[in-house]
Prior knowledge:
By secondary structure, the chain is of the alpha/beta class. It is 42% helix and 12% strand.
Amino acid sequence: MISQLYRDMLKTKSVIRQLSEYATRRGNEIGYENVFDFSLGNPYVPVPGTYSDAVIRLHETLPSSALHGYSPTLGHPVYKKKVAESLTERFGIPYTPELIFPTSGAAAALAHAFRAVVLPGEEILTFAPYFSEYDQYVNLTGAVLRAVPADTETFQINFRAFEEMLNENTAAVLINTPNNPSGIVYSEETIKHLADILRERQERFGHEIFLISDEPYREIVFDGKTAPCIAAFYDNTITCYSFSKSLSLPGERIGYAAVSPRCSHADELVPMMGQISRGIGHNCPSSTIQLAVSEVINETADMSVYEANMNLLYDKLTELGFTCVRPGGTFYIFPKALEQDSVAFCKKALQYDLIMVPGDGFGTPGYFRMAYCIATEKVQRSLAALERFVMAEYR
Ligand SMILES: Cc1ncc(COP(=O)(O)O)c(C=O)c1O
């Protein structure tokens, strides 16, 4: 008999991936340069040359076993040390290599964090709008994901609803800032208030509530600002990071989970993640990639492209009358659709070769996401298509 669980998942295939596949097919018909593909968060900006140089140098100098052998269960010591040093230097929190668990991207970091601190049947609370894959990530752990409704005025946290939903069965809270899909960066005020509420509830319920902070967009922040460091505000924090976006390395599948030195059971959690990786088969990320990333740990790809793209889109969207909270980071923007049904709205946009994702899968129907990690020249050309679409369908 085949698995009904995974068979059922065929009915909930990723809308983002389906739209991305459509964009590729349409590109084969009319030329991909004519398709305004805002579907997938797959960075267009090239990796820094220093990363490619490091890969070449490693291949020229290291023996085969060091490059291609299994990495240790708890990660390559060089990578763990570099990550810990970088976090300590940047955020003033004394991370040690023992608190860093290398993973295949943020997805695997989350998979390990959930399993380490949440039991099947317990709840993880997150905040709409949220990354659509969270449903799958959590469902397969046996835990239950519940989404706090969005504060659509600001896309900061809807604290009234959050406090109502927090309960004794809440084992973890999952946040993502800078946020996919809204592009919003939580303010220090928001994070402080969240931490205060969590500390008070931990006391009241007599157990930990872990904060799992999903931060693949930490480095993509606009207006010369930096994103507040979540672990600085709340001790029971596990940070899930990825170099997919900051170094444009999604194909290499490299990231980490970092356990705060002030977290309960801090010394046990990374060894436990080593055991979890045995169970879920997401173990031992590539040795070469861990070593290469170690050499460029504090670098990023050219993030300025995303700010330029955001400004072009934000200005055009507001000029066309869209309600839209200005993103503080990431490469996403999340405007309100011009009709209630955002699925119908995005379907109509396809006729103008605008590929955009309805907000329904992000827990916020009525909105839509544009991923602008594409060439600025293409964003510029898309503006006329956006205008034609709006004028023809909604004026
Ligand atoms: C919010 C968020 N979390 C996690 C991930 C997964 O990241 P990775 O590709 O590094 O596994 C993504 C990818 O787009 C994301 O947007």
